[in-house]
Amino acid sequence: MGLFDFASDLGKKLFGSEEEAGDKLKEHVESDNPGVKDLKVQVEGGVAKVSGEAESPSAFEKAILMVGNALGISSVQAEEMTVQGEPAAEPAVEDVQYYVIQSGDSLWKIASEFYGNGAKYQAIFEANREVIKDPDLIYPGQKIRIPKQD
Known about the structure:
The chain has 150 residues and is α+β, with helices and mostly antiparallel strands. The protein is built from 4 helices and 6 strands. A hairpin with a 2-residue loop joins β3 (75-83) and β4. The protein is globular, with a radius of gyration of 15 Å.
């Protein structure tokens, strides 16, 4: 599963029909804007196509995760999205990796696995603030960013 593939049968219900999906997903991202201008979202057959300009690779990733973690979205296509004016491809960001939450996971458990210390869960929460609103409310299938530690 790459950054742009998601579990369509899991996630937060943000829209009732595919006709309203693009507008609802755009509202969702803009309500907690991670740094994306001129955002447009279209949905067809569970595939979200996004365009706009992200101010950083992190903003790009967060927007993709916010759209993709919605119920009914199986993948996100971002060929028309730019990062600081440059075409965006699936980022090869060296300071971040991705993790799909499994049943029984908690941010503490994930931090223990990645950092060797569960108390560092706050770093994961901060890196996913737009995706995770409450560190105690994560769900299996949700995709999150795991920042690498020094």
